[in-house]
Amino acid sequence: MKLVRFGERGQEKPGMIDAAGALRDLSGYTDDITPAFLAGEAFVALAEMDSTEFPVVEASPRFGVPVSHVGKFICVGLNYADHAKEAGMPPPEEPILFMKATSALQGAEDTVVLPKGHSKSDWEVELGIVIGKHSKNVAVEDALGVVAGLCVVNDLSERAFQLERGGQWVKGKSCDTFGPVGPWLVTLDEVGDPQNLRIWLELNGEMAQDSSTNQMIFPVAELVSYISHFMSLQPGDIISTGTPPGVAAGMKNPRWLKAGDRMRLGIDKLGVQTQQVIEE
Ligand code: ZN
Predict the structure, then answer these.
(1) Is the pLDDT of residue 83 over 90?
(2) Ligand 1 centre and the CA of 1: distance in Å?
(3) Are residues 29 and 81 in the same domain?
(4) Residues near 88 by Cβ (< 8 Å), separated by ≥ 6?
(5) Which pLDDT value is given to residue 101?
(6) Within-domain flag for 68
(7) Is the N end or the C end of the chain the one with fewer CB atoms within 10 Å?
(8) Same-domain pairing of 149 and 78
(9) Nearest partner of 4 among 40, 48, 51, judged by Cα
(10) Rounded distance from Cα 80 to ligand 1 centre (Å)
């Protein structure tokens, strides 16, 4: 299944993309794609239903974050060996974790706003995991069972805030609009192997990042298990699993984001995001 939330910000309705690519309105079935919905029977039952029972939405609405009320937005740093190299860091022996403020979340096509005082803003296409079940101390072999689905994330970063202002990375990761998620939440049965998906990002039509999730140092199941040993994971939590090489910070002469830029990014089977960049 490909689940979506469509409509104006704050007024999104639940929907799904059917096998033919049409948007179907699920508001007669559930009020919203909430954490409770993902954890409940209605989500399981929906997979067995005939999507043509739900009305088609003819317009091309905005897509919001495909789950509401995200409790945690957890990120994994340096999870592609080549990206660690371009960042001048050794590949980590254990996953590096940091948090991104949930107020940074927005839809896949929403405008990215560079914050006041920005000087080194950067892109990072990433595979996102949406948790579907309350979980703690999950074994690696059980970890995919607590995942509701996968999605595309752009982990935008203001490197000067992140690395030159002291303390933790959170300052440079949490700016408003720095967390586009979606357009879809895709269930694992439809994705197949999460560790064999092309992952890419274009800046102004030129390929900047182009890799595969088979390059991840710590794969999806290991990450979910690992994180659940430090904190419980709740339905609706999002884990962003790190970015492949090709970010501005990895360039000899970095080409930072500026107003007027346009990013296009995607992952096989998980859809494509497009963002226009403006300044605050
Ligand atoms: Zn990242």
Answers:
(1) no
(2) 26
(3) no
(4) none
(5) 98
(6) no
(7) C
(8) yes
(9) 51
(10) 10
Identify which of 159, 177, 179, 155 has the alpha carbon closest to the alpha carbon of residue 169: 159
**CA of residue 44 to ligand 1 center, whole Å:** 31
Average pLDDT of 246-271? 96
- Return the half-sphere exposure (C-beta side, CA atoms, 13 A cut-off) of residue 123: 31
Residue 58 lies in a domain: no
Look at residue 253 and tell me if it is in a domain. yes
Do residues 99 and 170 make contact, with C-beta atoms less than 8 angstroms apart? yes
132, 24: one domain:
no
Q: Where residue 274 sits, what CATH number does that domain have?
A: 3.90.850.10
CA of 134 to the centre of ligand 1 (A): 24
210 and 255 together in one domain: yes
Which residues lie across from 165 on neighbouring strands? none
**pTM, entire model:** 0.97
pLDDT for 113-154, tens place per residue?
999 999 999 999 999 999 999 999 999 999 999 999 999 999
CA of 76 to the centre of ligand 1 (A): 6
Quick check: 85 pLDDT over 90?
Answer: no
**In angstroms, what is the span from residue 53 Cα to ligand 1's centroid?**
39
Task: For residue 37, give the 3-state DSSP assignment.
Answer: helix
What percent of the chain stands above pLDDT 70?
100
The length of the chain is 280
* 145: helix, strand or coil: helix
In the reported structure, the alpha carbon of residue 228 is separated from the centroid of ligand 1 by a whole-number distance in angstroms of 19
Tell me, in angstroms, the distance from the centre of ligand 1 to residue 95's CA: 12
Identify whether 218 is part of a domain: yes
Looking at the 3D structure of the chain, how many domains does it have? 2
pLDDT band at residue 102, thresholds of 50, 70 and 90?
very high
Same domain, residue pair 178 and 257: yes
Distance 78 CA to ligand 1 centre (A): 7
Q: What is the pLDDT of residue 87?
A: 77
Query: Domain range holding 32?
Result: 2-53
Give me ligand 1 centre to Cα 200, in Å: 14
Q: What's the pLDDT band for 91 if we cut at 50, 70, 90? A: confident
Q: How many angstroms is it from 13 CA to the middle of ligand 1?
A: 29
| Domain match, 36 and 144 both | no
Residue 126 CA, ligand 1 centroid: distance in Å: 7
